[in-house]
Amino acid sequence: MITFDGIGTALVPGSRVEFSNARAISGLPAAPQKILLTGMRLAGGSVAQLVPVRIISADQAAVAFGRGSMLHGMCAASLFANPTTETWAIAQDANAAGTAAVWTITLTGPASAAGTLAYLIAGQKVQAGVASGDSATAMAAALTAAINAAPDLPLTATSAAGVVTLTARHKGTYGNDFDIRANHYEGEALPAGVTSTVAVSVAGTTNPDLTAVWAAIGDEQYRYIALGCNDATNLTAADTELNARWSPAKQREGRAFAVLSGNFSTCAAFGATRNGIHTTVIGAYKVPTPTWKMAAAFAAIAAFHLAIDPARPLTDLVVPGVIAPQIPHRFTRTEREQLLATGISTFRVNSSGEVAIERLISSYLVNSFNFPDPSYRDITTTATLGYLRFSWRSVMAAKFPRVKLTEDVIASIKAETIALARDWFDAGLIEDVEGFIAGLVIERDGSNVNQLNLLLTPNVVNPLLQLAARIEFIL
Hints:
Layout: E1 34-40, E2 53-54, H1 58-65, H2 70-81, E3 86-92, E4 100-108, E5 115-121, E6 124-130, H3 136-148, E7 155-160, E8 163-171, E9 180-182, E10 195-202, H4 211-217, E11 224-227, H5 232-246, E12 255-261, H6 264-271, E13 279-284, H7 291-308, H8 333-341, E14 344-349, E15 355-359, H9 379-399, H10 407-426, E16 430-431, H11 433-439, E17 441-444, E18 452-455, E19 459-460
């Protein structure tokens, strides 16, 4: 039986033709991809807090959120790593109850030879010239001027009596993660007669509450979310929100990325306290690039490549803009193995000195009965499942708008589902199509005459992450 959308009965003779796109689209539909960056703004930013705004350049972000703000840095890092994927940002003001982190650089002198003070501050190179005979006070003043001449830095500087005092632009714990060091690169050295000591003098406290962000974005879908604030409370809020977004009631899949700064023991202990399916925490020890910028860059790289193929592993993809830690500060293979076992994602440094993804996983470790459960470990699993659900819903909505629930329609839905499964197989998203067909169940709901129930059993493709071989040699 042919049904029409806009043609009814008529008495006047003539031909009437309508158009329908029910058969127009074939193959797999493209899922919309959007990145969301969450971080703090400065008071001078032109965009109010909790207002999502699309960002297309770092300069736009500087105006929107204040130059040198956390969110400005995150936008710059994300767009540098991936300028293609649609990128949005939503700002929060710093928590008024918090404290800004304060660091000091203490210099001694006088310099007995000319040279250069070379520092890497929050991933940005800062240099100040030194003349022979310069006092500690003069050198501190010169370094302070060089720091304040770099407006993208997330801190400001003052100096007195040979001490440079660095104050985070925002209140909150993010300032505790600053990496401030002298002579990071080969060939750099303090001028003769000069020493430098870096220390935290005031720890930052109290971040803004991320739950306000979830309320502000409503049901808008962002598949990749970078979290500027990496504290446990806000990660738990992200776990709760993303679980709700993945539910059948909302179906707004998304994954959050955060970076934790700390040594092996700190990262492993933190991972053991997490159990989020949809949050990814990357461990980093003394990495010059700030944690919030790393989170944005990792999220951006994942967004670009998982949009192309959600099942393909991300291993060995370089993360542009992230400065590699020095060799003594890189986690060993044994440490990375144990971090992955505690739900902490890892990276490694390749032969070119670039930071590359090793394995991005969720924080999920145990099921509701507290037994180990690896089912949601790799983020490619949830990325693939999210796409399977999206594409099935998209095809069903396009093929069966405003239909009546008849046996013919049930047969058509079954046929379209099988055809879609074959497309999934051809795209390398699932294995064993025949097993999928054998396991496909379609039945009318026993209590709702308007509902059709389906059981789909896709065998999701797994990433190839290890090869094992035995060599039996012969002499």
